[in-house]
Amino acid sequence: MRKKVTVIGAGNVGATLAHRIVDKQLADVVVIDILEGVPQGKGLDLLQAGPIEGYDVKIKGTNDYQDTANSDLVVMTAGFPRKPGMSRDDLLKANFEVVKSAVEQAAKSSPDAILIVVTNPLDAMVQTAYRVSGFPKNRVIGMAGILDSARYRTFIAEALNVSVQDVHGLVLGGHGDTMVPVPSYTTVAGVPISQLMPKEQLDKIIDRTRKGGGEIVALLKTGSAYYAPSAAVVQMIDAIFNDRKKILPCAAYLEGEYGIKGLFVGVPVKLGAKGIEQIVEIKLTPEEQAALAKSAAAVKELVEIIAV
Ligand code: APR
Question: How far is the CA of 209 from the centre of ligand 1 (A)?
Answer without folding.
Answer: 23
